[in-house]
Fold PhnA protein.
Amino acid sequence: MSQLPNCPQCASVYTYEDRGLFVCPECGHEWSEADVAETGLVVKDANGNLLQEGDSVTIIKDLKVKGATGPLKQGTKVKNIRLVEGDHNIDCKIDGFGAMSLKSEFVKKI
């Protein structure tokens, strides 16, 4: 028996296959093997929620930024994120601050 992939939406291990699609009984998400192959990059927030391109997130702690006059405050909302490879795996633009790269461990999905 082959190993079925975890749900990309909620990371549940209780997935099953139905008519060529994978289905998650916990959140109801359906996806195909091609969807998994396309998105190869898996990024999770501080709570373990899977992040996707275009999601909105909130910063969970004050972050010092080199060269800036002040820190990014806890609770700052960031819209329309882009996922990238590397240590700082979120690229975004923050209103009033500019373009930034963030680590996913310091954000939570809204």
Remarks:
- The chain has one helix and eleven strands.
- The longest helix spans residues 33-38.
